[in-house]
Design goal:
- The chain is an alpha/beta fold.
- The protein folds into 2 domains: about 5-130 and about 195-250, Spore Coat Polysaccharide Biosynthesis Protein SpsA, Chain A (Alpha-Beta Complex); about 135-180, no CATH class.
- It contains 12 helices and 9 strands.
- It has helices at about 15-30, 50-55, 75-80, 85, 90-95, 115-125, 140-145, 160-170, 175-180, 205, 230-235, 270-285, and strands spanning about 5-10, 30-40, 60-65, 100-105, 110, 130, 200, 240-245, 250-255.
- The longest helix has 18 residues, at about 270-285.
- The two termini are about 35 Å apart.
Length: about 300
Amino acid sequence: MSQVDVAINVYGKPHQTAVTLMSLLKHSGAHIGRIHITLEKRQPFGAEFGTLLSMLGARATIHQPPFWFGVRPQRSKWLMHWSAYRRSLRYQHAWETSRAPYLFVTHNDVLHNADILGAMLKAINGHVAVGPVGQCWNCPAAFAKKCSPERFTTYRPGYAEWQQLVERFPGPRAAHYDRVVDPQQPWPLPECRINEWSMLVDLQRARPLTMPHGKAVPLGALYGLDIGTQWFHDVFNAGATVEHFAIAPYANHAWASSTGGGHAALSDKAVYDAEEARALEYLRTHHPEMVTSTYR
């Protein structure tokens, strides 16, 4: 059995999704078993995925959730007890059904240029997960130069110190911190997470900690400041550890974007079309077999 299954959530961007998976298979295919695709029941701009799915064939498992959450927060008690609701989260169906020891979680706008899975498998080494840590670009502790992805485990301020940091270096999301920070357990800090656009999870360590088996809110749930921040907080406070892994030598997230992120394209068709055109050009050059008159 291959060591790694892949979990990818697909909401639009068929060309970028194809680049993500084809480039990952090119460089890390030897490690990969199944590709679990959560194909959201709503799709923007008439996105279709027939060509990609036919190319992947039996390797792909397609899950179309009964619920579409978008960016709405979820109810924690329903996550624990209602499997259809919980498995409508972007990665949870793969999380619960994969038979591989490791699950690689990726966004559908990542270009891989080296064997990221081979490197991550060497780095995981007893951790619950490896991947790029931080949303430090939003965090008062980073603005104060007290914390970084490489040293976030050693900087653990109490609640009073955290409040002082927010007052001096508020950052763009400071208005939300009172809502999500527990004064009794303020660490990990609210911006802290493994960014799930490129993240390898040890399922044997993660599943017992995570709903429905443990208390940690699932990785794909918006139940904190951002996707995955509550899971990160919960597994750390349950005694697990993660390893920061810089992906730059292996992959480029939001590579087709002119804004440095993927969200803008989902509400602006001009931005969306420009990104998809860049991805289509990549496919024409590197995977011409995928570019047909029916690929849209």
